Amino acid sequence: MNDQKYIFAAALVLLSLNTSALVAQSKEPPPSQMIFFLESIKKLQPFMISDEAFKDPTNEKKIQAELDKLKEVSKSLSHEKRIAKPGVKDAALKVQSHFSELADAFPLSKAYSRYLLHATLDGCGSCHSQVRGSEKPLFNFDAKDLAGTPFQKGEFLFAVRQYPQAIKQYEEVLNKADIIDQRRAALERGLVVYLRHFKDFDSAETWIRSFSKKRPDHASYSQPYLDDLKALKKSKFPYVQKSNSKEVENFAKNSCQTQNGFVNRVFASGLLHDYLENRRQKNEAVKPVIYYWVGKCDASLQSSYIFSLTNLMFEHCIDLAGKSSQGEKCFEEVESQIVLGFTGSSGVHLPEDQISKLNALRKKVGLKAKHYPVNKEE
Ligand code: HEC
Predict the structure, then answer these.
(1) Which is nearest to 113 in space by CA: 59, 168, 176?
(2) Ligand 1 pocket member 160 (CB < 6 A)
(3) CA 23 – ligand 1 centroid, Å
(4) CA–CA separation, 98 vs 215, rounded Å?
(5) Are 117 and 96 in contact (CB under 8 A)?
(6) What does the DSSP assignment read for 19-77?
C-alpha cells in the first residue's frame, strides 16, 4: 500500500474504531499515522511482554504483518505537516529507520528484533515528549485490556501518551509491597511525566509524598528525590527563549553529570530539548558541546539504548564538531552505547550495519577504521 492509501485508510479506521476506545474531542486530530501505530502496537503488546510468544513460530506471520505495517506507515511520516518541525523530524527519521530495521530483522534474528521491538516504545515516547500534546488524549483505552504487569502496562500507556493512566499503573507498582524491584523504575517514570513533560515540581512532590504516607517503607529511598526537588525549585535555570548559549552550556554541564540526581537530569533534559527546538526553529546555531550534554543527560535517563535520540544528539555533535577533540568525545559516546547495546553473556556481537555506521563516524572525527567483533547469531 502506498502512503496516500494509508492516510485515506486511516480515516476509515478512525471511523470504525469502537466508540469506547475513542472519545470524540473537538481538537485537531493526531497525525493519521498514529492510528495505525496504535493499532499495531496494541496487537504487538502481548509479544513485547513474552519472549516465548514472540519466538513461537505460530505467531510469526501475525508479528511480521504488524512489523511490516509499522515500517510502511512510518515512511509517510515525513509528509505530515506537524512532524516537519526540525526536532520532531529527527525523531521521525529515526523511527523510520528503526521500523525498517525491525521488520527486516525479524525473519533473521528473533533476539535482535525483540530487542528492537522493546525500544520501539521509547521511540514513540521520545517523539511525543517533543510535541506539546493536548491534555485530553483522543484515545482512551483501558489498562485492563492490556497484557502484562502494572509496570509493563504503564510503559505502554506512557508510550501512547496516556500519561495520567500510565501514572496510575506506576502507582500500582508503588503501592504494592511485593514488587520492590520495580518501584524505583516506576517512581522515576512518574517523575519523567511530571518534570519532563509537565515541568510541574509541585505535583511531582505531592505525588511522591502520597506514597510515603501510605507506605512508610518508601521514605528510605524516596527522600533523596524529595530533597533534590526542593533544591531544584530554589535553583536558577535558564529560560529557553532568552538565555545565551554560554548560560545554557553551563546549565547543561552542571545538570547533566551522572553524579547529579535523577530529578536534575530529567528536568534539565526537558528544558534543553525545548532550547534545541527553539533555536532550530529560528535557524540559530547550537554549539556541539550542548548536543554532547543533552546526549549525556538523555542517555542517563533512557531505558533502552538502541532506539535513541541520544545517539542522534551525539551524531549532531559529530557533524558540527568534525575532526576535533569534541568530535572524538561525542564519537566515544556513540560507540560505547552501541557496543553496550550489543553486549550479551557471550561478549560483544555487532551487526554489520552498526559496524559500518561506527566506521563512518570514526572517519568524520578523524579516527582510523576499526575491526569490531561481528554478530553471527542465529
Ligand atoms: C515523529 C513523531 C512521532 C512519533 C515517532 C510517534 N508519534 Fe504519536 N503523535 C505524534 C504527534 C505530533 C501527535 C499529536 C499530538 C497531539 O495533537 O496531541 C501524536 C499523537 C499520538 C496519539 C494520540 C494521542 C492523543 O493525545 O490523542 C497516539 C495514540 C500515538 N501518537 C501513538 C503513537 C505510537 C504507538 C507511536 C510509536 C509506534 C508513535 N505515536 C510515534 C508524533 C509522533
Answers:
(1) 59
(2) yes
(3) 16
(4) 41
(5) no
(6) TTTB---SSPPPPTHHHHHHHHHHHHHHHHS-HHHHH-GGGHHHHHHHHHHHHHHHHGG
Q: Is 161 in the pocket of ligand 1 (CB under 6 A)?
A: yes
DSSP state of 83: G
Give the DSSP H/E element, type plus range, for residue 344. Answer: strand 343-344
Of 70, 1, 65, which is closest to residue 35 (Cα–Cα)?
70
Model confidence pLDDT, tens digit, residues 131-176 = 665 555 556 667 888 888 898 888 888 877 788 889 999 999 888 7
Atom of ligand 1 nearest to the CA of 99: 38
Residue 79 gets which letter from DSSP?
A: G
Q: In 107-218, which ranges are continuous DSSP H helix? A: 110-128, 150-159, 163-175, 180-191, 201-214
Per domain, the residue ranges of the chain are: 1-131, 138-234, 236-378
CATH 3.40.1000 fits 138-234, yes or no: no
CA distance 268 to 37: 29
Question: Is the Cβ–Cβ distance between 118 and 48 less than 8 Å?
Answer: yes
* 159 CB-near residues (< 8 Å, 6+ apart): 41, 120, 121, 122, 124, 125, 128
The CATH fold assigned to 236-378 is: 1.25.40
Cβ–Cβ under 8 Å, residues 151 and 173 = yes
Dig out the grid coordinates for 324 from the structure.
Answer: 576535533
- CB count within 10 Å of CB 192 equals 24
pLDDT of 170-198, one tens digit each?
999 888 766 667 888 889 989 988 998 88
374 by DSSP, 3-state: which?
Answer: strand
Regarding the beta carbon of 139 and ligand 1, being less than 6 Å apart is answered yes
